């Protein structure tokens, strides 16, 4: 079979397994409720009198918080499950390269998130009804949010390739995502800059540069910068590389 | 097998290393780093001017920007939060564009914290927001080495000029040397700063307040009207009332402009102040001086495409100023409607006053673009100077609005051509004896140093420009500039001179004290112009930003509809309440005049009225509550639709699929 066909086969199997169990429905349910709830109730969307989905306390700025927990929940079963059930060996005997399996499974989980984001469409209708939003930042906000989710998912995928326990995979993934989230968060960076000696300013800024939020903020507000997009794609690429390595090592 | 794993680990490490290097190349070095501003109004795109200022910063003199914004929502109102985001975004863009030359510090001053002390130390103005005296801060401090510029308060109303304010501050704090301003005027308005011998000090010899103000920030130097060249170290030439200017002095201005100098000219068809400088002359002391009341730059205006008649004055019935209880149509108080609000430099100005100003009819030529800065209303007309003189005392007899607004302040930018294609004009002075030229003068002036003029030489009043036949041959040898070197030529023209005179820019303390108060925006106009020009062409290229704010118009409309719905009932209750209150008052009045006899029957009535009042007030309260409830209900409905519709759909789909699968399984 051709590589594309292999990937599609794995993708199909994985994608339908999400929707054949209650998992995907529950996660999508929580995601939509959380995204809307944070925006409308905690963020005071209607009283802000600002027809925009980006900026502090608004729709897109809540996404990283939600992904922190929900993305590892989707991704934790990617490889841990196979290892626990022993289907890993089965997969290894199949005439497909590990890359095809890695990509197929990853794309399946990624499409669950694509569906999740698509299901937040009511907020676009709402904001267009209530005011005159600028479509540009909404488009780039969705791109930013999806890239963020993809990066978290890739991290979870890499972690799950190393452990057979879904719980451990979940906790470690959340921890990594949290660190990458926090150290790029503007308030945290400002605080760190305040408490660390001036000689370490460069280091703090460098670490912040490696984290998610530094690359997320501008994109979520309507400015697509090539370097930010490249950053998220790099995280995805590197993490999938690690996943591939772990699978291959196990198979060997 | 083992070696295969090691190999793939090595490959993985190599790939990671490559990815990291590519990231560093793109983000750190800006290699192939594209940016796409998807916002409709280009909110993240800095103007070329700001970009050039930021990129031109000296890496050895880093700039620190401290942005103070109290983020606590109990202290900072909603507008502050929203606008804070806008400011923060702009600062972030500027910081990024600087490539590390600017550091941005976001400071959140809360009551009784170290941050608050910092804000106070930086002179950021705090707003008291509650009874405890807590303050919220919203301002900017921009510092480079020991120079600091402060924007003590930020308000959304100034969003248009925000970028300009920051760019201006950046160019201020990083400027290394003071700009030199040359002042050319037949009146001794920029007289030497301090060195009057006692007793010699005449009133009219004192420098104008405008010039004194300029001296605070710039080096101001006199350029005599008889000059034939402008010193090459002068950055900005301020020409004030060039009455009877000689062609050779015009040539000097022309060459100064083409060389890259910036020109600000105030001309006047009817200068009131000039009279103060007319001196009948005294035997043995001062020679007779006479400053013509009207001025012009005839040759230059012609070349620049500026039509101007030095005998016509603008009379405006809309913008006229009341003077001694009579509105003089030639004394103009120009409000914001007559001031260009698209230019960051004039946008903040509130009121410009001009006194018998002329009119420019600009038809910009070639590579020169004209921008109107100040104009009259359409209910205006041009009248000649004799009528203008009369208009100060009596009403205009036959005023007819031209239906066209007159331009009284204009900016020309672009690539200028010389107004003197044949080089320096010949002296028209009647038989002045030529000094014979100065052979071998160091040629610091590209246009060729005119004979008889040392740079910066202070010619006396009767020091007529010397142009000797002997010098003519030399002139041909020294070519003059024919065109400006680049597109950065700038000329500002204003058609009134009096507007910058002391009495018309400040109000003195009526008690005779030293304190002065700015009476209009005339002085800020001059100072802004000079500041803009000393910042170079970059500051001019900073445009006004459009607002990033997008309110919920529909929600406001819906809420207004609800209020509309309740208005008749509300008005009815208000009316009833009013009536009852009046009735009670009337009852009280009756009681007072008629004494005890009427008290008893009235008491019952008063009680009844009071009960009614309480009842009506309760009704009103209820109505307001109901109105708020309607609004809240609508908001709740919107929230509920957003939150619940899709999750319910998800459950429905999930349940349907599960049920179908179960029935399929059961069938098997």
Summarize the structure in words.
The complex is a heterodimer of chains A (252) and B (668). Helices cover 79% and strands 1% of the residues of chain A. Chain A contains 13 helices and one strand. In chain A, helix 3 packs parallel to helix 8 and helix 3 runs antiparallel to helix 9. The longest helix of chain A has 26 residues. Chain A is globular, with a radius of gyration of 19 Å. By secondary structure, chain B is α/β, with parallel strands linked by helices. Helices cover 38% and strands 17% of the residues of chain B. Chain B contains 15 helices and 22 strands. In chain B, helix 2 packs parallel to helix 5 and helix 14 runs antiparallel to helix 15. The longest helix of chain B has 69 residues. About 11% of the residues of chain B have low confidence. Classes of the chains: A mainly alpha (252), B alpha/beta (668). Strand 1 of chain A pairs antiparallel with strand 1 of chain B.
Described by the principal axes of the CA atoms, the overall outline of chain A is globular
Shape of chain B: globular
Low-confidence blocks of residues of chain B: 193-204, 430-477, 589-599
The profile of the biggest β sheet of chain B is:
7 strands, mixed
Q: What's the β-strand tally of chain B?
A: 22
The interface involving the most residues is between: A-B, 63 and 62 residues
| Quaternary structure state of the chains depicted | heterodimer
User: In what range is the share of β-strand residues of chain B?
Assistant: 15-25%
Strand content of chain A: under 5%
Question: What is the residue-mean pLDDT of chain B, rounded to a whole number?
Answer: 80
Provide a count of the helices of chain B: 15
Order of helices and strands of chain A: HHHHHHHHHHHHEH
In the predicted model, the low-confidence regions of chain A spanning at least 5 consecutive residues are none
């Amino acid at each position: 079979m051709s590589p594309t066909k292999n990937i599609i086969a794995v993708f199909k199997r994985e994608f339908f397994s999400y929707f054949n169990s209650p998992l995907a429905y529950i996660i999508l349910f929580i995601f939509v409720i959380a995204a809307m709830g944070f925006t409308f109730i905690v963020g005071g969307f209607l009283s802000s009198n600002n027809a925009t989905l980006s900026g502090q306390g608004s729709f897109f700025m809540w996404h990283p918080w939600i992904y922190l927990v929900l993305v590892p929940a989707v991704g934790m079963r990617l490889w841990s499950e196979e290892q626990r059930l022993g289907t890993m060996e089965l997969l290894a005997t199949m005439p497909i390269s590990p890359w095809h399996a890695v990509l197929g499974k990853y794309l399946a989980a990624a499409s669950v998130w694509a569906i999740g984001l698509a299901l937040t469409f009511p907020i676009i209708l709402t904001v267009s009804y209530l005011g005159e939003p600028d479509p540009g930042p909404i488009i780039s906000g969705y791109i930013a949010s999806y890239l963020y989710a993809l990066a978290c998912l890739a991290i979870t995928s890499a972690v799950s390739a190393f452990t057979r326990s879904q719980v451990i995979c979940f906790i470690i993934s959340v921890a990594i995502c949290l660190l990458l989230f926090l150290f790029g968060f503007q308030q945290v960076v400002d605080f760190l800059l305040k408490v660390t000696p001036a000689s370490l300013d460069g280091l703090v800024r460098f670490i912040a540069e490696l984290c998610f939020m530094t690359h997320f903020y501008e994109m979520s507000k309507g400015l697509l910068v090539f370097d930010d997009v490249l950053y998220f794609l790099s995280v995805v690429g590197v993490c999938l590389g690690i996943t591939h390595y772990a699978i291959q090592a196990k198979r060997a | 097998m083992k070696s295969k794993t090691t190999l793939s680990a090595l490959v993985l490490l190599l790939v990671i290393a490559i990815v990291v290097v590519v990231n560093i190349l793109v983000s750190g070095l800006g290699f192939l780093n594209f940016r796409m501003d998807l916002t409709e109004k280009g909110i993240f795109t800095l103007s070329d001017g700001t970009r050039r200022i930021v990129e031109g910063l000296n890496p050895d003199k880093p700039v620190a920007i401290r942005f103070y914004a109290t983020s606590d929502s109990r202290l900072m109102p909603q507008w502050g939060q929203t606008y804070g985001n806008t400011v923060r975004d702009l600062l972030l863009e500027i910081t990024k564009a600087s490539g590390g030359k600017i550091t941005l510090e976001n400071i959140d001053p809360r009551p009784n914290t170290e941050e608050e002390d910092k804000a106070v130390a930086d002179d950021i103005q705090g707003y008291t927001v509650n009874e405890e005296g807590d303050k919220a801060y919203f301002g900017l401090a921009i510092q480079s080495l020991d120079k600091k510029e402060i924007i003590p308060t930020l308000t959304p109303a100034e969003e248009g000029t925000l970028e300009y304010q920051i760019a201006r501050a950046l160019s201020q704090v990083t400027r290394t040397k003071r700009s030199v301003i040359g002042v050319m005027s037949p009146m001794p308005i920029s007289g030497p700063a301090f060195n009057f011998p006692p007793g010699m000090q005449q009133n009219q010899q004192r420098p104008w307040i405008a010039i004194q103000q300029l001296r605070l920030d710039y080096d101001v130097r006199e350029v005599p009207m008889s000059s034939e060249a402008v010193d090459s170290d002068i950055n900005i030439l301020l020409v004030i009332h060039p009455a009877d200017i000689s062609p050779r002095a015009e040539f000097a201005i022309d060459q100064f402009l083409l060389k890259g100098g910036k020109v600000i000219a105030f001309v006047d068809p009817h200068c009131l102040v000039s009279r103060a400088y007319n001196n009948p002359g005294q035997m043995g002391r001062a020679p007779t001086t006479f400053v013509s009341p009207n001025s012009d730059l005839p040759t230059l205006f012609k070349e620049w495409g500026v039509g101007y008649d030095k005998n016509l004055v603008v009379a405006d019935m809309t913008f006229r100023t009341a003077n001694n209880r009579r509105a003089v149509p030639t004394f103009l108080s120009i409000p914001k409607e007559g001031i260009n609000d698209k230019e960051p430099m004039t946008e903040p100005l509130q009121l410009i006053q001009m006194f018998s100003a002329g009119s420019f009819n600009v038809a910009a030529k070639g590579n020169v673009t004209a921008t109107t800065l100040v104009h009259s209303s359409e209910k205006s007309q041009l009248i000649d100077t004799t009528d203008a003189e009369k208009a100060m005392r009596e009403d205009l007899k036959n005023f007819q609005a031209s239906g066209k607004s007159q331009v009284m302040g204009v900016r020309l930018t672009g690539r200028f051509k010389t107004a003197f294609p044949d080089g320096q004009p010949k002296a028209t002075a009647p038989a002045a004896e030529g000094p014979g030229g100065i052979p071998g003068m160091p040629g610091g002036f590209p246009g060729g140093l005119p004979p008889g003029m040392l740079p910066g030489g202070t010619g006396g009043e009767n020091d007529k420009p010397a142009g000797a036949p002997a010098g003519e041959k030399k002139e041909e040898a020294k070519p003059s500039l024919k065109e400006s070197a680049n597109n950065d030529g700038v000329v500002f023209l204003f058609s009134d001179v009096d507007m910058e005179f002391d009495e018309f820019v400040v109000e003195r303390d009526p008690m005779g004290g030293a304190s002065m108060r700015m009476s209009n925006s005339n002085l800020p106009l001059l100072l802004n112009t000079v500041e803009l020009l000393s910042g170079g062409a970059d500051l001019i290229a900073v445009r006004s930003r459009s607002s990033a704010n997008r309110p919920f118009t529909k929600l406001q409309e819906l809420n207004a509809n609800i209020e509309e719905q309740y208005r008749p009932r509300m008005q009815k209750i208000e009316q009833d309440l009013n009536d009852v209150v009046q009735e009670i008052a009337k009852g009280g009045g009756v009681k007072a005049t008629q004494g005890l006899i009427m008290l008893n029957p009235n008491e019952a009535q008063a009680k009844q009225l009071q009960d009614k009042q309480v009842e009506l007030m309760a009704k009103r309260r209820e109505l307001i509550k109901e109105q708020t409830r309607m609004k809240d209900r609508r908001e709740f409905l919107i929230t509920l639709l957003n939150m619940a519709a899709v999750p319910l759909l998800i459950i429905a789909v999930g349940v349907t699929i599960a049920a179908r699968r179960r029935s399929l399984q059961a069938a098997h």
